Amino acid sequence: xxxxxxGSSDKKTPKEEIRPIPGRQVYCxxxxxxxxxSRAWRRVSPMVKCPCCGMEFxxxxxxxxxxxxxxxKCEEPLEQPGFDYGICDGCGSKYEITEGCKxxxxxxxxxxxxxxxxxxxxxxxx
Length: 126
Description:
Blueprint (H helix, E strand, L loop, with lengths): L17 E3 L3 E5 L4 E5 L1 E5 L16 H4 L20 E4 L6 E4 L6 E3 L2 H10 L8
Antiparallel strand pairs: 1-4, 2-3, 4-5, 5-6, 6-7
């Protein structure tokens, strides 16, 4: 056993950390209206597991080298540390929220399938 906890040989996987933030009124382009985003959070550390397929990333820094990191298996867009995220109370779509800018949609699996079918501009009216 190491003295005072120094030099531990067991490597633990890094813990994902998020902090809740107050909900806010944001424009949802899927609903085409301003909606309350009551579920909102700030990502503090990189994601170590994909929320869609459950794949664990042994080296998250490799995944986060890209401009917009995505899961190598299912292409789910991953949240980046230091950014705010929220889920629309109207339709359940997830957005990256930046103060003073339009929110950026992080498409879920169904939305990504429709975007691949119809093109990158997604609309619920197809």
